[in-house]
């Protein structure tokens, strides 16, 4: 709750007195902490372990946090009823002078199915997960496949949402968004372990598609019309000297250019559009390769990511004769 004015000590005390009966009706015991010029922090604890924190700030912000351990639906219903009573009492107390009331959705902690996964730029997203299809640790990472009502099966590697059945937009973007003719071409896929790129690209009748650790090919002298790098996104860290992923990324870029034909194209993902510093740093790395390159980028909505994603097309700069 945000009031449209500063709250004097008397206002803070009035809010506390007005809300106390609602918590007491729930059989909650009260502990009050009062700081001069800093408002109140009040905790209410129920015998079943449920509790509430009431924070009253003098600048006009009133926060209520409720936590309960109960049956899923029953717990939500009790929480909603209590919040409804608190909201009604606050409106009565301030007679319409509340600037804003914001009620956040319930967060279910410790559930059998984990529905909460962060976006690349650090926002918490709740997915409509209804089934754990697979959950195992490999020698290299934790592998989860969770089923979403909206997005189908989602592959999650060590806590990072990789790809869902709904995400054909990702696969199309990292293949050039339908603008390329792969007929009779040599294609190198780096990574792509989910199989989505390979599944789509063989429909376009290339001469050969290779999915290997391509450092071998750099030594053998093989050349490709297209290199599709699906190994890793641009690192979030903007300190290349402290993050080994940047060193790996630079190595991949240089070796890719060495196996890419003069008129070939290199496709890769960037990262979330909000990570502007990391994307800018990546583009700076492109100017430091062994050969001069040019690039373009495309912004695509990948459904299960719930954020806009940047994809790059890179090619060797044609030297004027």
TrEMBL record:
One of its GO terms (molecular function) is spermine synthase activity. The keyword rRNA-binding does not apply. It holds the Pfam family Spermine_synt_N. PROSITE patterns: PABS_1, PABS_2. Residues 115-212, 224-316 form the PABS domain. InterPro entries: PABS (IPR030374), PABS_CS (IPR030373), SAM-dependent_MTases_sf (IPR029063), Spermidine_synt_N (IPR035246), Spermidine_synt_N_sf (IPR037163), Spermine_synthase_animal (IPR015576), SpmSyn_N (IPR040900). The active site is at residue 230. One of its GO terms (biological process) is spermine biosynthetic process. Keywords: Polyamine biosynthesis, Transferase. The keyword Chaperone does not apply. Belongs to the spermidine/spermine synthase family. This is Spermine synthase. It comes from Dromaius novaehollandiae (Emu).
């Amino acid at each position: 709750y945000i009031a449209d004015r500063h709250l004097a000590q008397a206002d803070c005390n009035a809010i506390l007195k007005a809300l106390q009966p609602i918590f007491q009706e729930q059989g909650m015991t009260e502990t009050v902490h009062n700081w001069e010029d800093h408002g109140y922090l009040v905790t209410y604890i129920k015998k079943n372990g449920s509790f509430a924190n009431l924070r009253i700030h003098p600048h006009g912000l009133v926060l209520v946090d409720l936590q309960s351990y109960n049956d899923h639906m029953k717990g939500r219903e009790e929480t909603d009823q209590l919040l409804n009573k608190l909201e009604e009492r606050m409106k009565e107390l301030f007679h319409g002078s509340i600037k804003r009331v914001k009620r956040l959705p319930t967060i279910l902690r410790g559930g059998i199915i984990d529905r909460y996964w962060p976006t690349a730029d650090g926002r918490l997203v709740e997915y409509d997960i209804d089934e754990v299809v697979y959950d195992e640790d490999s020698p290299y990472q934790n592998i989860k496949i969770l089923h979403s009502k909206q997005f189908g099966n989602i592959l999650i590697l060590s806590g990072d949402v990789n790809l869902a059945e709904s995400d054909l937009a990702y696969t199309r973007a990292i293949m050039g968004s339908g603008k390329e003719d792969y007929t009779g071409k040599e294609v190198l896929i780096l990574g792509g372990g989910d199989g989505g790129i390979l599944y789509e690209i063989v429909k376009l009748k290339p001469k050969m598609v290779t999915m290997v650790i391509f450092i071998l090919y750099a030594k053998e002298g093989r050349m490709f019309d297209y290199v599709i790098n699906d190994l890793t996104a641009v690192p979030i860290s903007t300190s290349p000297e402290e993050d080994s992923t940047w060193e790996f990324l630079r190595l991949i870029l240089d070796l890719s250019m060495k196996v890419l034909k003069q008129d070939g194209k290199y496709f890769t993902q960037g990262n979330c559009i909000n990570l502007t510093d990391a994307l800018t740093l990546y583009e700076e790395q492109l100017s430091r390769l062994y050969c001069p390159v040019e690039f373009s980028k495309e912004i695509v909505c990948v459904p299960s990511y719930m954020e806009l994603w940047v994809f790059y097309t890179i090619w060797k700069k044609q030297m004027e004769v």
